[in-house]
């Protein structure tokens, strides 16, 4: 999970992120009935475990964000799932903090929600072969948007950070490619093995 | 990764930090972070770093594991700190051909580095020593929506289960002589691996959900709360609030 550590962002950015994050969370929690909690929790746990896997790319390796995939599998409920992943990272590993949580949530969840609304219904109706390409789009879009949101929240905080933020944005280019390819294969696999996992637009796992 | 996941879950209350209620620790972490963000003075930040190191020692965290985590800070922070002195406009410190670091940039980099490390230390001591169960319970008592808390606790419950599932699949891959390289075959395999984890977790969730319904799950968990609010918690929280207000007030005055 890409997150900004505590101590870099300025107060207006932090407050804006918190307000937007709470609004998104409130909206999506209303759309999560109590019966769907086990399904959401287990899928969120599976995605958390997957994001810890390191994938070799060239001479280095990356960890996946998987926010595009979260949007496709969980729909709008991806918002609380991402929040939980961020909280657990703070508790388990000491990364990220509670004040910057809002900004980090928005940076990851906004692309996920976009994938949930736009790409999920398309994949629901697509063939396994075609859903590879739609999954690729979702994964690439998720990483790309997160990269842009993350660097813009740094740039908005302090104009002195703009050159450094541009370099950070460059590191998202390989991540975007790998994220797209792997999400594509995952979505194609799910469409062949368990197509009922990817629901239409308003669907929930119950 | 499993070491990191499980090392934190067993905190049986031997260190001094465990006298504090989890709620106090969460609220103090937020307060100190908000305060540190508003401070720009190098002297106060250095003092805060020493204080945070003291708290970390009090929390009984091993020096090695703490340093390990600070060094492992996000790669992009390192980029940020290296680039800042050269891109910020201000008085040049010295000239080395095209390389001209400025005093202002160096100060900004130092301020950010101090803030990040101090806040990380405090978070490690205050939140990192809590078990996910304690966090869930504290959030519930702080009036966080019930279904969010349940989602957190259920995810925590199944992360270790799905980790075992993941380890099982990786062993099966190893038995078939899979070696992770930078090629399409590897990426396809990892894509299918993630897919397999999702499919299996989904099947398991149906069984769990049915079992819960059989036992009359009505949408709310019953909590057994071990933590109790003590006078010490009120004192700590009051002290933290007063210090924060003073420091924030001071930094907006100057």
TrEMBL record, chain A:
The lineage of its organism: Bacteria, Pseudomonadati, Pseudomonadota, Gammaproteobacteria, Pseudomonadales. It comes from the Bacteria. Keywords: Cell membrane, Membrane, Transmembrane, Transmembrane helix, Transport. The chain crosses the membrane at residues 12-29, 41-65, 72-92, 98-119, 131-155, 167-190. It is found in: Cell membrane. InterPro entries: CbiM/NikMN. It is a multi-pass membrane protein. The gene is cbiM. This is Cobalt transporter CbiM. It holds the Pfam family CbiM. The keyword Membrane applies.
């Amino acid at each position: 999970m890409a997150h900004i550590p505590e101590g870099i962002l300025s107060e207006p950015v932090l407050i804006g992120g918190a307000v937007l994050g709470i609004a998104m969370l409130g909206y999506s929690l209303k759309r999560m009935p109590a019966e769907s909690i086990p399904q959401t929790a287990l899928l969120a746990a599976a995605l958390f475990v997957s994001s810890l896997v390191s994938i070799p790319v060239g001479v280095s390796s990356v960890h996946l964000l998987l926010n595009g995939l979260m949007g496709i599998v969980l729909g709008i409920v991806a918002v609380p799932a991402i929040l939980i992943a961020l909280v657990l990272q703070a508790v388990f590993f000491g990364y990220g903090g509670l004040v910057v949580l809002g900004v980090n949530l928005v940076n990851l969840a906004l692309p996920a929600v976009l994938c949930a609304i736009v790409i999920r219904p398309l994949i629901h109706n697509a063939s396994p072969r075609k859903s590879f390409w739609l999954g690729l789009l979702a994964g690439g879009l998720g990483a790309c948007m997160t990269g842009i949101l993350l660097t813009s929240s740094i740039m908005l905080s302090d104009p002195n950070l703009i050159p450094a933020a541009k370099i950070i944005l460059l590191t998202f280019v390989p991540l975007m490619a790998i994220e797209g390819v792997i999400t594509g294969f995952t979505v194609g696999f799910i469409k062949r093995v368990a197509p009922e996992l990817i629901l239409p637009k308003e669907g929930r796992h119950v | 990764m499993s070491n990191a996941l499980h090392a934190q879950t067993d905190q049986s209350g031997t260190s001094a930090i465990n006298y504090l209620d989890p709620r106090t620790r969460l609220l103090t972490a937020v307060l100190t972070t908000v305060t540190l963000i508003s401070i720009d003075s190098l002297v106060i930040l250095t003092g805060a770093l020493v204080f945070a190191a003291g708290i970390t020692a009090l929390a009984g965290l091993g020096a090695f594991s703490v340093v390990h985590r600070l060094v492992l800070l996000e790669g992009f922070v390192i980029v940020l700190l290296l680039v800042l002195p050269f891109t910020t406009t201000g008085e040049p410190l010295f000239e080395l051909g095209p390389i001209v670091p400025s005093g202002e940039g160096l100060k900004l980099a130092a301020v950010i580095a101090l803030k990040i490390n101090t806040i990380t230390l405090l978070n490690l001591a205050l939140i990192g020593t809590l078990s996910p169960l304690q966090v869930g319970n504290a959030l519930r008592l702080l009036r966080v929506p019930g279904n969010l808390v349940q989602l957190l606790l259920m995810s925590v419950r199944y992360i270790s289960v799905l980790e075992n599932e993941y380890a099982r699949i990786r062993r099966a891959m190893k038995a078939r002589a899979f070696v992770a390289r930078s090629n399409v075959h590897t990426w396809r395999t990892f894509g299918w691996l993630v897919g397999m984890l999702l499919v299996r977790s989904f099947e398991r969730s149906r069984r769990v959900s049915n079992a819960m319904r059989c036992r009359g799950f009505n949408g709310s968990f019953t909590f057994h709360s071990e933590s109790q609010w003590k006078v010490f918690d009120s004192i700590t929280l009051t002290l933290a609030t007063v210090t924060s207000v003073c420091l924030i007030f001071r930094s907006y005055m100057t």
